[in-house]
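Final report, Chapter 2: Outcomes

The project's central promise was a pipeline that accepts a single protein chain and returns its three-dimensional structure in a standardized token representation, suitable for archiving and comparison. That pipeline is now operational. To close this chapter, we reproduce one record exactly as it appears in the project archive, with the input sequence first and the structure output second.
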Amino acid sequence: MKANSSDRPVIRPLPVIDRARQVTDALADYVEDARLQAGDRLPAERELMAALAVGRSTIREAIRHFQALGVIETRKGSGTYLLKPVSRATIHMPLSFDAAHLRDALLQTLEVRRGIECEAGMVAARRRSAKDLVVIEEKLNEMERVHLEKGTSGPEDLAFHLAVYDATHNPLFRQLLEQMRETFERFWEHPFDRQDFARRSFPFHRTLFNAIAAGDAEAARAETLKILDIVEEDIKEMSK
């Protein structure tokens, strides 16, 4: 007996590929095909816009992605330069998980955050330079200012954690966050439409900074866990 055609699985149309991702892939291919090496200059922004038929904002988003990965740098008045050779295979680390509900997605991502952020805090405490401490404290002060003014400070909170990652002097920490940015940013976008999500963790960012400044790796780990434990508690409570 033949199966009813209506019972067959539906082949769905392919999604539209993200334009910034297309530009990133095209740039990676160009670097590889042109055999560019560290120190070589990339084409100018206007040239990339014309060649790839995309707008300035798309080019800049792709450039920011490369900068976050630590493979290029933009020198004011000079141009954009390659810091290390790349290929399409080295730029993306596709990640996916099967979580039908926001609660499950956040809890799964939190497990990964614990491993990465606890280690980053400990490494930063051991390796941070005086310059790193200035940057981290600047980000912390801005986070505290916005938090006290608005009662929330998502982007500033993220910037603080990125500064801690940079203080490890291990580019893989920031690269991992960049690869998982879309998933991680759910924590800074008011999950469950609650402006007070993880608000109780606010004071522990200052104590985390103090631990890093003191070079106390174990204290940095403990303060990071306090922040993430509150995040977990709020996920479970606010998703009821």
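Archive annotation: DSSP finds eleven helices and two strands in the chain.
This record, like all others produced under the grant, will remain available to the consortium after the project formally closes.
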